[in-house]
Design goal:
Chain lengths: 141, 253
């Protein structure tokens, strides 16, 4: 049977995770309200050959998207199809209008940004980065 | 006022008279399909909030809308249909007890069927104009209800993880007929298109027929509005090992 120490350690870890989540949620909102830019939802996954990033930017058109990438980061900046207003109480403003999506997305492994390919369908941006060659192929004798 | 349980309470603040009602559940999950679908249905049919679920597992909060206060996990009623819907994901720590409590409350209404609405992650969702809807009945009674539904496929193999899985399981344990209706959806992005698809399936029931046109028209706005709930839901999905739904069952082959 697990000891009391084990349970309190699990509780401490849970509290730490909650705190990290809350810090992230607050920093996203602070960024959005101070910059007037929305932080889009995104998803990153890896295959043996590629790092694939999907970014949800409803209403965005191809010509309004700016993408830049390094070996380990993707910079996304896009004009919203239409400005988005949010009414809320608060000290700084009661109504806030957002006109852009903006996000710096860290990539989980080193990629070749020169050979990246991007597509946009229904406001869903997909970028495929070939992974940088990490090693040498080993043939089995 | 009816109260069930200790730290989890299903509170009915208004009495209702139903007869073999249908009960829908739309807790946040993959693509927020259940949340978007139930929210649209409740608004389109002008259902009234008649109760709520209260629990120490949920953060201490209330919703304020147009100057009025609401509970974030609400129970709505109209047309002999109850809808349990939520602005909060079910926390993993409370998922067993909360869903068990809700299942028991649902059973107390003597429902003709309980329907859990949700999404099932489809990695190639962007390529699908028309997502498929998969159904999971929790027993023979529920399977009979499925015969009256069009445009669905039975989910033959796979895992279900999270509140919807627990609801189906708990309902089976207590002998309440329940169905899971899951549309192929984006895993981490709000998916109004998938929500529209499950509402199309539900239109087989006359008392739940709604115009899904407004969902398509306001899809972009909804995807922006639901971003925060999606982020919170994603955190809970990660804790519940939701990605297991993408795996194949290995036992009993």
């Amino acid at each position: 049977m697990p000891s009391e120490d084990f349970f309190s350690e699990v509780e401490r870890m849970e509290r730490r995770m909650r705190k990290i989540s809350e810090d992230i949620a607050r920093s996203i909102k602070e960024f959005e309200y101070s910059s007037g830019c929305l932080e889009p939802l995104y998803e990153v996954y890896e295959t043996p050959e590629e790092v694939i990033v999907s970014v949800d930017m409803p209403g965005v058109k191809k010509e309004d998207v700016s993408l830049e990438a390094t070996e380990d980061k993707l910079y996304v900046d896009a004009e919203c199809g239409r400005s988005i207003s949010v009414r809320k109480w608060g000290v700084s403003s009661q109504e806030k209008t957002f006109k852009r999506f903006r996000k710096v997305i860290p990539l989980p492994s080193s990629v070749d940004p020169e050979r990246a390919k991007a597509s946009l369908k229904g406001g869903l941006l997909k970028i495929r980065f070939p992974r940088k060659k990490a090693g040498t192929r080993i043939d089995i004798e | 006022m009816e109260k069930l349980g200790e730290s989890i309470e299903v509170v009915e603040s208004k009495s209702t008279e139903s007869k073999r009602p249908i009960i829908l559940e739309g807790f946040p999950d993959v693509g927020l399909v259940g949340s978007i679908a139930t929210s649209h249905l409740v608004n389109a049919l002008d259902f009234e909030q008649i109760g709520y679920v209260e629990s120490e597992y949920f953060p201490p909060m209330v919703t304020v809308r147009k100057g009025s206060m609401y509970e974030p996990v609400g129970i709505f009623y109209g047309n002999n249909v109850y809808v349990v819907t939520s602005e909060l994901p079910v926390p993993v720590a409370g998922v067993y007890r909360i869903m068990s409590k809700i299942a028991n409350w649902m059973k107390s209404k003597n429902p003709s069927v309980i329907i859990s609405l949700g999404g099932i992650a489809e990695p190639e969702r962007v390529k699908l104009d028309e997502p498929s809807v998969f159904a999971v009945p929790n027993g023979k009674g529920a399977a009979e209800v499925l015969k009256g539904l069009r445009g669905i496929e039975l989910l033959n193999e796979g895992f279900l993880v999270g509140p919807k899985a627990m609801l189906l399981k708990e309902c089976r344990k207590i002998g309440a007929p329940a169905i899971g209706l899951f549309a192929q959806a984006y895993y981490k992005f709000p998916d109004p298109g998938a929500a529209a698809k499950v509402l199309t399936v539900l239109s087989a029931f006359e008392n739940m027929r709604v115009d899904i046109g407004p969902l398509a028209e306001s899809a972009e706005k909804l995807r922006v509005q639901y971003r925060d709930l999606m982020r919170r839901t994603e955190e809970e999905m990660n804790r519940m090992e939701k990605s297991r739904e993408l795996e194949f069952p290995g036992l009993l082959v």
